[in-house]
Design brief:
Helix 1 packs across helix 8, helix 3 packs parallel to helix 4 and helix 4 runs parallel beside helix 6. The chain is α/β, with parallel strands linked by helices. The chain has a seven-stranded parallel beta sheet with strand order 3-2-1-4-5-6-7, sandwiched between helices. Helix content is about 50%, strand content about 15%. Bound molecules: NADP nicotinamide-adenine-dinucleotide phosphate. The site of NADP nicotinamide-adenine-dinucleotide phosphate has 30 residues, from helix 1 and helix 4.
């Protein structure tokens, strides 16, 4: 396979599982990280030992200049970008009346502007001229149904769904698909904000009876990037154990 995928926020959690899944399937993979350099390097070494083609690049997705440098580096190394997976994201678990202006701004910057930055950069530098590409944006069930104590997060994740649907229409004539993966509760650091009791209650609400694994999300993303998913665009696929139906 001569396909290249960029995964943002891929040193940890869901992004790490996606990077592993794509690399082991034969993609050239760029692992983007911001602060988790040690984890990014470890993953890179692990996958290289298994014969995978991997590069890592530090870029804050909110910084367009850093994002441009990352895309140029990927193009210089692999020549094209076939798949962009916008996974980097942050959450904040607080009452709406307590969240600060700075926290709101940071949330919108990382979870929305970050996705705009990377998406515009890969479109301008590779996908539009090649008339080929797949963009997969990681939203959340809370962007579909809203979560108490996560108003800013839910807002940002709903915005990604709106953005993806509009962009899917705009890019279809260029043979580029845009889809959303909206996971339910997945076992990563992000769930660390919940107490043991909250986690127990949440698990009891999930029809399949368990918190999801990062690999469950990675499998969905891999399917959406596959040839078999070529007629799917503008859709929201939600690996959530039945929590939202
Ligand atoms: P995580 O373990 O906290 O990982 C978040 C990742 O985002 C980290 O790798 C982090 O990179 C990266 N990131 C944050 N700010 C960044 C920035 N400015 N520039 C570049 N990268 C940045 O969380 P996760 O659970 O894997 O979440 C991954 C995605 O899934 C997020 O979009 C999240 O909203 C979504 N999601 C998660 C769940 C869940 O239950 N876990 C459910 C639904 C949706 P560094 O560590 O390198 O800074």
């Amino acid at each position: 396979m001569n396909k290249t995928a960029i995964i943002t926020g891929a040193a940890k959690g869901i992004g790490r599982a996606i990077a592993r899944e794509f690399a082991m399937s034969g993609y050239n993979v760029c692992i983007n990280y911001n602060t988790s350099e040690k984890e990014a390097k470890e993953l890179c070494e692990e996958l290289k030992k298994k014969g995978c083609n991997i590069i890592i690049f530090k870029a804050d997705v909110t910084n367009r200049k850093e994002v441009d440098k990352m895309i140029d580096y990927v193009l210089g190394t692999y020549g094209k970008v076939d798949v962009l997976i916008n996974n980097a994201g942050i959450s904040e678990y607080k009452l709406f009346i307590d969240i600060t202006q700075e926290e709101i701004q940071r949330m919108l910057n990382v979870n929305i502007v970050g996705v705009f930055n990377t998406t515009q950069a890969v479109l301008q530098k590779s996908m539009i001229s090649r008339k080929d590409g797949t963009i997969i944006n990681i939203s959340s069930i809370w962007g579909m149904v809203g979560a108490s104590l996560e108003v800013a997060y839910s807002t940002s994740k709903a915005a990604i769904i709106g953005m993806s649907k509009a962009l899917a229409k705009e890019l279809a004539p260029s043979n580029i698909t845009v889809n959303v993966v909206a996971p339910g509760a997945i076992s990563t650091d992000m769930l660390g904000a919940l107490s043991k009791e909250d986690l127990k209650v949440l698990t009891e609400e999930i029809p399949l009876g368990k918190i999801g694994a990062v690999e469950d999300v990675a499998a969905t993303v891999k399917f959406l990037a596959s040839y078999e998913a070529r007629y799917i665009t503008g859709q929201v696929i939600s690996p959530n154990g039945g929590l939202v139906i």
